[in-house]
Each structure stands twice: as C-alpha cells, then as structure tokens.
Amino acid sequence: VQLQASGGGLVQTGDSLTLSCAASGRPLSDYSMGWFRQAAGKAYEFVAAISWDGAASSVADSVKGRFTISRINGQNTLYLQMNNLKPEDAAIYSCAANPTRFVSSRSTAAYNYWGQGTQVTVSS
C-alpha cells in the first residue's frame, strides 16, 4: 500500500486543520491506521490510531479532546481532525498502516507502511 498525507499548513493558535491520508495499491480496509508526528530534533510521537473498521481508536493524552481520527474505507482515506491547535502541535505528521486490522496500536514498530508526512506549523 502507498500512503500520501496532505492538508498541513500554517495556522494560528486555536485554529483547526484536517489532515488526510490517501491510500492506493491496496484497500485501506486491509489495515489499521495511525497518525504519528515528529517535531524538529525529536523522535516520532504517537498521535492517534484506529482499527480497520473504526470500532476501536486511541489518541494520545496530549491531544485528547482536541484531535479526532476517522476513516472512510470506501474512499480509501484516513483523516485527522485537529482543533484548538497549540504551538506544541507543530510537527511533520505522517500516516502509517498496520496489517493487524483489529487493533489501534500506539507503537511505531507495529506499522509496516508509512506515507510521506505533511508539515503543520502553529504560530502563537
């Protein structure tokens, strides 16, 4: 599967942004999916994950109540709705696919396929 993230940009504190991740080559429904982010000079950080059917999901404590992960398998697209953005949310956001479908894993090691990230910049 090939993954392409999009939707990043420059926003102000408190703004909202929706990221998309388009899958091609294999059906999105073959995978559970995750969003991770990497700020400059830092390691990858788990953001959110969702099982293949959306029945199970998980979000990081740092974004709980502000970010929502969702998917539309019929459109082969994964989303990350980000509300009330803060400067500390600034990072490159990447989507990833996990062949184990019924989980919402927080570990980068669970994900075999990664898309090119999209930059989110939040000005204060």
Task: Give descriptors for this structure.
single chain; 124 residues; mainly beta; 4-stranded antiparallel sheet; 11 strands; 49% strand
Provide structural commentary:
With 124 residues, the chain is mainly beta. The protein contains no helices and eleven strands. The strands form two sheets. Strands 2, 4, 5, 6, 9, 10 and 11 form a seven-stranded mixed beta sheet that branches. A four-stranded antiparallel beta sheet has the order 1-3-8-7, with no helix packed on it. The radius of gyration is 13 Å and the shape is globular. The mean pLDDT is 97.
Tell me the layout of helices and strands:
Blueprint: E1 2-6, E2 9-12, E3 17-24, E4 32-38, E5 45-50, E6 57-59, E7 67-72, E8 77-82, E9 91-98, E10 113-114, E11 118-123
Parallel strand pairs: 2-11
Antiparallel strand pairs: 1-3, 3-8, 4-5, 4-9, 5-6, 7-8, 9-10, 9-11
Report the count of strand segments.
11
What is the 3D shape? globular
Summing up helix and strand content along with how strands pair, one would put the structural category as mainly beta
The string of secondary-structure elements, in order, is EEEEEEEEEEE
Q: What does the radius of gyration come to? A: 13 Å
Q: What is the CA-CA span between the terminal residues?
A: 37 Å
Question: In percent terms, what proportion of residues is strand?
Answer: over 45%
> Low-confidence stretches at least 5 residues in length (pLDDT < 50)?
none
The overall pLDDT, averaged over residues, is 97
Q: Count helical runs.
A: 0
Oligomer: single chain
| Helix fraction by DSSP (H/I, runs of at least 4) | under 10%
Largest sheet: 7 strands, mixed
